[in-house]
Amino acid sequence: MRRESGIGNRESNKQVRAKRRSAARHPERPSIPDSRFPIPNDWWASYFDAQYLLEYSPIFDLARDRREVARLIDLLGLPTGARILDVPCGQGRHAHLLAEAGYDVDGLDLSRDLLAHAKARGTGRTLRYARGDMRRLPAKWSARFDAVVNLFTSFGFFLLPRDDERVVAEWSRVLKPGGVLVWHGGNRDGVMRRFVSRDWWLADDDTMIGHERSFDALSGVLTVRSTWRGRRSGGEREHRIRLYSASHLAEILARHGLVIEAAFDGWTERALSRRSGEMLLIARKDS
């Protein structure tokens, strides 16, 4: 059930320039027709598959993963052996490295495809993967974890806002008193400030990927249409994600006993600002 769902300015300027240089060498970018397809309310149940992995292959990079996990470890300040839940964990990019660093890690995701990739990378006594819905975490996990991490814009998938709130309630339930939540994703304020309605890039196998985006200001929902054209296949599909501002998300977290202690401009050490396209929030559960 992961991950990054087409936010327009999610990447650095350097990455965007690199993509556009690559696309310029392949001028026959995919056309994106004006027609629209109905988006299933449970689009997330089937979206995170092999095509998703191909689509975002340019930013699934081990060096990047290691930098992000190093930042996580610094922010969490937890001792070796602390219990961490990565939800949704996707293909285990962060969970695996956290376990390598000496933590006791559980990863939960709904996608069978992504979980298969995660398990193929390795499991062990301190790294376990389970399939499940993040709105309903296992009952036995109550007050189990020292930290919960929700990374790579893996929030806001559900049709109803109350389901997003159910997710937050579950995070709070499974955290120990004094436990820490790390939330990373798109910042509505920053995304809207530099909204990118259309872009394209090459996947690792030279498949051309195109994204067209629209945003509904009343609901806060970003709709993303993906189109791909490759040597062996082509297709198109749509998905949606609800974007949150830091202040709105802080209110939701507070209702469930999670108080934000720090807010950063993505993975950097800079403080969150209205210009930040991504935000990384550190919240602590009431003791």
Q: Main traits of this protein?
A:
287 residues; alpha/beta; seven-stranded mixed β-sheet; four-stranded antiparallel β-sheet; 9 helices; disordered N terminus
Secondary structure: elements and pairs:
Blueprint: H1 13-24, H2 44-47, H3 50-55, H4 62-76, E1 83-86, H5 93-100, E2 104-109, H6 112-121, E3 127-131, E4 145-150, H7 161-174, E5 175-186, H8 188-193, E6 198-202, E7 208-216, E8 221-229, E9 234-242, H9 246-255, E10 258-265, E11 278-285
Parallel strand pairs: 1-2, 1-4, 2-3, 4-5
Antiparallel strand pairs: 5-11, 6-7, 7-8, 8-9, 10-11
Helix pairs in contact: 4-5
What's the gist of this structure?
The chain has about 290 residues and is α/β, with parallel strands linked by helices.
Description:
The protein is of the alpha/beta class. It is built from nine helices and eleven strands. The protein has helices at residues 13-24, 44-47, 50-55, 62-76, 93-100, 112-121, 161-174, 188-193, 246-255, and strands at residues 83-86, 104-109, 127-131, 145-150, 175-186, 198-202, 208-216, 221-229, 234-242, 258-265, 278-285. Helix 4 crosses helix 5 (93-100). Mean pLDDT is 90; it is low at 1-6 and 8-35.
